[in-house]
Amino acid sequence: MSDSRPDAADAGDPDVVIVGAGPAGLSAGLNLVRARHSVLLVDTNRPRHAPTLHSHGMLGLDGIPPLELRRLGREQFLAYPGAAHLTGRVASVSADLTVSITGVRGGPDRELRPRAVLVATGLSERLPQVQNLRAYYGTALHSCIECDGYEKAGLPLALIGQTSDLAARALEIAHWSPDLVVFTNGAPVVTAAEERMLADAGIRIERDDIDEIAGERAVMTGVRLSSGRIVTRSAGFVRPDWLPQVDFLVTTDASRDSTGRIVVDRGFRTDVRGLYAAGDVTAREPMQIAVAAGEGAVVARSIHLDLLGASVGGQLAGPPDFRDGSLIG
Fold first, then answer.
1. What keywords would UniProt list here (predicted)?
2. N or C: which terminal CB in the chain sees fewer CB atoms within 10 Å?
3. CATH classification of 128-239, choosing from 3.90.320.10, 3.20.20.70, 3.50.50.60, 3.20.20.140?
């Protein structure tokens, strides 16, 4: 166990296992222990947003470092009876909700059978293949327009990506800065019609392969193309491929969308009884901390009502849109 009290660690199977300790998982965990459920929070402590210096758009916490946000959330969660945290990797969740956990850094393996499992693992990202891009990622370059657009307003910006939605993202970024160049890194992802549309908006396309991000003392100064030409840029955005971290669910029948993200109903229930999902791992946009934390609160209420209903042999009704039975994606 990590960051937990011995009594919580040794209490046997918890009511709920939460996989992932980002905003969605922490928010759900806090609300569930306040509802007097025992909760084990499991994560590997390798958050996707670790390179980012500041998190934005969270009411009351705008500008907080993401790792500090996680630390505060975990501290507040663990202050309640029934709360426990384990640094480990969930190897599998079976259809009967058996959770197999592989210990990390010498920690023991565990197998648990909770009454409910919440998947809040978020996404990993595959960045465009540019050799030194990660050296600037989280400082000069970002992936979340809603999170970091304000800080980049008015600068000469780059948009680097190889996905089919690149033109739409370019138009969104242009709201913050009229000086925008789109770099496709050699991928044929912007059509001729899209290029004309972007040109009408004052946005230029560079289709050559990218050699590297140019910079001095970790300050971005441009994008160097394979020809050797440098296009001067001060900052920008990248469009990763988003990869849901849900391999441990392969033995369940939880529905996924075309991108592999988990499909849920309005109460964040999957189509597997007792299995829930919230945060970036679900099929929705935008991917913001405030949205994920809100989803954590909503799914906590769903889990709480479902556990109460099961304990009395029935079903408790939440707000009407919690129980319409439809999946959203």
1. Flavoprotein, Oxidoreductase
2. C
3. 3.50.50.60
